[in-house]
Specification:
This protein is α/β, with parallel strands linked by helices. It contains 11 helices and 11 strands. The structure holds NADPH dihydro-nicotinamide-adenine-dinucleotide phosphate.
Length: 281
């Protein structure tokens, strides 16, 4: 039976370090959060971010803009925050109203204040192994892998999912650890080759958003499994991997919920601290 790799205790340890560093900074870092419209999910997420920020000694500034805010106006507001020296980081809450293109808008955040690590300049730095502000979910996955204490050098790693802010950055970060990385995506599934790839994984990371996509019996004996997926099935939150069967075969597995999730907001706050320090220099 696999050992459960939970995110909370790791997050707790990192948060203690952040708190200490913030008190040594002598000044509260400031995170500006923008929500457009009144989506309940976005509001709940912002509330939970504020709670974490308060506990760490971070000032959380919440800005709620009207549902019908046009893109130009939102860009104008972002620019205002970009030039405001009292602001260290900027985050845009999701989902945005349908008339706003998130990919386009997020590029207007100054890379130095991009605490979600999603600006092309920050994503690009990953290629050179020089990222200051990593996207939060990839950073969380790397913390979980680090916690296993296992060396990735020369290991067969399979990344399922190739989105810009989750799958692709994770694959690059793993490459930097000299793992042999295969990236699977919709094309792999359509070609009927997903099972074949998953079966060879010594480390399997899945970020798709489809419950039960990875059959438990595909998991290699002794594999480390990190399930990033979040799916709601019959009122329950589950990952992308069939947990019960996978747990019997893996050596280490993350639960959903409780694996990657608790770490992502901590990574956001760690980025804010990094941004504040970089801006001080
Ligand atoms: P995206 O929808 O942006 O990406 C999903 C990826 O899965 C795409 O690369 C897509 O390929 C690929 N894909 C779709 N269908 C298949 C298939 N049948 N076989 C193989 N690959 C497939 O999602 P994200 O990357 O943003 O997130 C992935 C999951 O992780 C979601 O469930 C999300 O909720 C969760 N998540 C969890 C977080 C946490 O804190 N725990 C944080 C962030 C995300 P293509 O685009 O080519 O179709």
């Amino acid at each position: 039976m696999a050992k459960l790799l939970e995110g909370k205790p790791i997050a707790q340890k990192i948060k203690e370090g952040i708190k200490q560093e913030i008190s040594a900074l002598g000044k509260k870092p400031v995170l500006a959060s923008i929500q457009v419209g009144g989506d309940a999910g976005a509001e709940a997420y912002a509330k939970s971010q504020k709670k974490t920020a308060d506990a760490l000694g971070i000032e959380y500034q919440f800005h709620k803009l009207a549902q019908d805010t046009i893109e130009d106006k939102l860009v104008g507001f972002i620019n205002q925050l970009n030039v405001d020296e009292s602001i260290n980081g900027i985050i845009i809450q999701m989902p945005l109203p349908a008339h706003i293109d998130y990919k386009k808008i997020s590029q207007f955040i100054s890379p130095e204040k991009d605490v979600e690590g999603i600006h092309p300049a920050n994503i690009g730095k990953i290629v050179f192994g020089k990222a200051d502000l990593l996207p939060c979910t990839p950073a969380a996955v790397m913390e979980l892998l680090n916690e296993t204490g296992m060396d990735l050098y020369g290991k067969e790693v399979v990344m399922v999912g190739h989105s810009e802010i989750v799958g692709k950055p994770i694959a690059l970060l793993l490459l930097d650890k000299f793992a042999t990385v295969s990236v699977c995506h919709i094309g792999t599934s359509k070609a009927g080759k997903l099972e074949e790839h998953v079966k060879k994984a010594e480390f399997l990371i899945v970020a798709v958003g489809k419950a039960g996509l990875i059959k438990g019996e595909w998991v290699r004996e002794g594999a480390v499994v990190i399930d990033v997926g979040i799916n709601r099935v019959e009122g329950k939150i589950v990952g992308d991997v069939e947990f019960e069967e996978a747990e019997k075969r893996a050596s280490i597995i993350t639960p959903v919920p409780g694996g990657v999730g608790p770490l992502t907001v901590t990574m956001l706050m760690r980025n804010l601290l990094k941004a504040a320090k970089l801006q001080q220099k």
